[in-house]
Amino acid sequence: MSPTVSPALDWLATAVVLLDRVLHVKYVNPAAETLFATSRKSILDQPFPGLFADSGPLAALLHQAIREERGFADQDLILVPTGQEPLHLDCIVTPVELPQAALLLELRPIDQRLRIEREEQRMTQHRANRELIRNLAHEIKNPLGGLRGSAQLLERELDRPSLREYTRVIIKEADRLQALMDRLLTPHRPPNHVPMNIHEVCERVRSLILAEFPEGIRVKRDYDVGLPEFRGDPEQLIQAVLNIARNAAQAMLGARATTAPGLQDRGEIVLRTRVARQVTLARRLRRLALELQVIDNGPGVPAEIRDQIFYPLVSGREGGTGLGLTLAQTFVQQHHGVVECDSQPGRTSFRIVLPLR
What we know:
Blueprint: E1 15-19, E2 25-28, H1 30-36, H2 40-43, E3 52-53, H3 56-68, E4 72-81, E5 87-98, E6 101-109, H4 110-157, H5 161-184, E7 194-196, H6 198-212, E8 217-222, E9 230-232, H7 234-257, E10 267-281, E11 284-296, H8 324-333, E12 338-344, E13 347-355
Parallel strand pairs: 8-10
Antiparallel strand pairs: 1-2, 1-6, 3-4, 4-5, 5-6, 7-9, 10-11, 11-13, 12-13
Helix pairs in contact: 4-5, 6-7, 7-8
């Protein structure tokens, strides 16, 4: 019989194990079942050290923690489950006072810890960059208005049409910069959640890409038709996926323009949907999530900007604004999801993961 524990432990991304005073397992959460590749039923009431090879030192530390009523942390614990590969773990042991449990173990794979740290660092950097760019955009907008107004006044005073062409250039470029500043300052409105299907997003993006690039790009479907509906903002998600797909199409057409005819196949984008299980999003373990991949066979993201592609104003394309992926990341994060990129020449995959209820 498991001790009385909070149901919230079942939803933690961290593996949690409760042991009694003789180190028998009294509770494991789903994350621990996944970590040890076994079921709760098969390990309940079993000696915890007996689940692993060469666990004598760990058993001694656990007994000491019970005896002294003092916890400990081990940031480089190696456990070898029977018949499996070694697990490199962060481990925190805390004495507890429950009817049938004396120790609480929190276990997290080190690679998971590093991934979470990278995600948090990326989100922190993203927020800092957005704030910097927004402040800069505010400072630029004010002189732009004065510049455009002065050019309009000057144009009225000029008699020669040839001179007016110069003022029109000033006005046109001021308007272009104004539009760029407006995009940088777009307010981050919260998503308008409605019941929706991800394939409606994919089909809309597919039709827009085929209309914008009628030659040289084909868009393939690879859908899991069993995916359930979820609540999201269709406009934001369409824009996020469209920005990624449009970047892919532009990169492939740009590569073809610099390649001798006949040496490169037609550009291809694949929209792939799948169910993802036991996914950690924003430090929460999600039993079910939606995974959408945008895969292309283009030249890949340049190595020198691969780690900064989601930063504002970073672009691998001449003339690009560097805002498309930034906005895509913002919209996905507002849905409590993540977007990741894996790129090499000939295959680039952007992976969007969104939680399902």
